[in-house]
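Slide 14.
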Amino acid sequence: MKFALDKNSLILALDALSKKDFDLAAAVRQVGYPDERRRPAGFQTLMHIIIGQQLSTKAGATIVGRLHDAAAPDLTPESFLALDEAQLRAIGFSRQKILYGRGLSEAILDGSFSPHELESMADEGVLAALTALKGFGRWSAEMYLLFSLGRPDVWPADDLAVRVGVQQLKKLDERPGTKEMDAIAEAWRPYRGAAAIFLWHYYKKFPEL
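Slide 15: predicted structure.
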């Protein structure tokens, strides 16, 4: 059976990890289980990821809303490309994000990239396909793997909130680097993605750290 990161799967995965990691078990008892965080797979979510880079959640949501209004009745690669630079700048796109959005749209239309095909690829294949697109680094690809494809063992070791969550969870004096993050997370295989989602939830309880 495919294990995706829906609410029930998150609970089952965290319960399994808690049996092996007493720190994690104590943290789950302290703050409870995280809510499910899923986004539909496909072009629109990939465009939302581009928009949200280096922006606050509120600012990103505002631009997303404006884009959907401008591309009505539906945001598609075709409707995005129909918007000229002046329209996109008025919506809130930077010149760089205009290039990223157009690159994504054109890649889908010319067949060099297919969001649908990602669903049948292994995690590393998805990472390679997404990071080949301009505007998608490893973190962006990991977010898509976690929240759109529901992959349970994706580990975003370079995410700041996840690092701070690990520091608090393991009572470390300093924020861990990538190697230390990877070493700690070895014990959480094959559900490192569930651990990451919990750590975001845990971090929100201690944002001042």
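Speaker note: The chain has a mean pLDDT of 94.
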